[in-house]
Structure formats: C-alpha cells, structure tokens
Amino acid sequence: PLAGELAGMNGGVLIVRGKAGAFAADRMRRGLIAVLKGSGDNAGSRMIAGTLVVAGGTGEMPGYLMRRGSILLDRAPKSLSPSFVECGAPESVFAAVIDRHL
Q1: Sign of CA dihedral 74, 76, 80, 86
Q2: pLDDT tens for the chain, residues 1 to 102
Q3: Is residue 1 part of a domain?
Q4: Distances (CA, A) of 12 to 46, 50, 62, 79
Q5: pLDDT of residue 26
Q6: 5 assigned to some structural domain
Q7: How far apart are CA 69 and CA 23, in angstroms?
Q8: What are phi and psi for residue 75, nearest 5 degrees?
C-alpha cells in the first residue's frame, strides 16, 4: 500500500520477474504474489491473507506481524520473526500446485 493506506492487495495474481524491495506484499488481503529474483526485508509483513512466493532469497524478518496467509521461500531467510516457531517439515502438495500454476 501507499504511505498512509491501511489495505494492501485485495486479489489477483502479480508476477514480479525481477527483485522486489522491502515490504513486498505488505498488508496483503487476498491473491498471489510471486517474486522470481528475491525480495528485501520484511516481505509479507502484516499480511492478513493471500500467498507470497519468493524465489531467490529474502531479507530479514519475512512475515513480520502477519496474521494469516502463506509465504513460500526457496531458501531459509536470514532471520525469522520471533512469532514463528519450528513445527517440523510439512507434508503438503501446496508448493507443487503453486509451481505448476506459475
């Protein structure tokens, strides 16, 4: 969202074929954002719902203060928000479905 706005993306599909800056998918409500060459710090911060896919690495604290939604990363981030806890490796076909869609 722009400075002062409270709502982020509200649906649709956005494919970024380069690198996204800091706060990519900030306050996202619905939809899918795929970033193909990495993102800056705080990607997916304050997400309310939706899906963020980042290939190529991400900066510090992805998903900071997010409520719901999904963030898929192709490699481990530099650091995670303290609200995330280790819960083991998921057994899900979700990543394969997103990969086919993109």
Answers
A1: positive
A2: 666 667 788 889 999 999 999 999 999 999 999 999 999 999 999 999 999 999 999 999 999 999 999 999 988 888 888 888 877 777 777 777 777 777
A3: no
A4: 18, 10, 21, 29
A5: 93
A6: no
A7: 15
A8: -155, 165
Distance CA 31, CA 45 (A): 15
Specify if 30 maps to a domain: yes
Domain with 63, as residue range(s), is 22-69
Give the single-character DSSP code of 37.
Answer: S
Residue 53 included in any domain: yes
**pLDDT computed for residue 41 by the predictor:** 95
Number of folded domains in the chain? 1
Q: What is the DSSP string of 42-55?
A: TTTTT--S-EEEE-
* Predicted pLDDT at 97: 77
Structure tokens at 24: 């990519």
* Count helices and strands in the chain by DSSP H and E runs: 1, 4
Give the predicted TM-score (pTM) of the model: 0.83
